[in-house]
Amino acid sequence: MRVAIAGAGAVGRSIAGELLENGHEVLLIDKAPTAISVERVPQAEWLLADACEITSLDEAALQRCNVVIAATGDDKVNLVVSLLAKTEYGVPRVVARVNNPKNEWLFNESWGVDVAVSTPRLMSALVEEAVSVGDLVRLLRFSHGDANLVELTLPEESALAGTQVGDVEWPEDTSLVTIIRGTRVLTPTREDSLEAGDELLFVAAQAREEQLEDLLSVRREDATS
């Protein structure tokens, strides 16, 4: 897979290193000469250019990229890069970094963004996830379909503890994608039982989140009354 990363700062270089370790082709783009540190990620391609300019993106052959990551520290730049990648070059997947949470509402399919990653929001979500049981925590937002990656740790008193996945009437537009049980990561089947303490990861429409939280958090005595 070929990936172009706009922004060769600490974030961009870190992403590049991870992708290269996983066998992907990576191109780092930055307009600041001081950011071009080939020795830090020698396996990557490097391009000194302004990622907001069509001529630069032509030189980068963005049409050959499977993914573009807008990872600069400037939200305006990330939005422009995302829009150009999607509309001018037809890049299948565009991931954009959100620096200021107040700008998060802009990072949607109208600007070519498939996945928006807000570092402040993600950090706060991970804190919530570590201390919350029975509360739905939003980890990531997907622009297409208005869906989110959400997590809930199944509480001890949940009526669904001990219930098989296939026997649960899940809300519409929700999908249970992973069960984390201790150190194990499980791909759920209809026969798998839910256990108290399971971390459940869903892709769910935002409009269904409250319904999903109510379903998972309902107490045993409430379900039988």
From TrEMBL:
Residues annotated as domain RCK N-terminal: 1-117
Keywords: Ion transport, NAD, Potassium, Potassium transport, Transport
RCK C-terminal domain residues: 137-218
A Gene Ontology cellular-component term: plasma membrane
Record GO terms (molecular function): potassium ion transmembrane transporter activity
InterPro entries: K_uptake_TrkA, NAD(P)-bd_dom_sf, RCK_C, RCK_C_sf, RCK_N, Trk_Ktr_HKT_K-transport
Highest taxon, organism lineage: Bacteria
Protein name: Trk system potassium uptake protein TrkA
Source organism: Streptomyces cadmiisoli
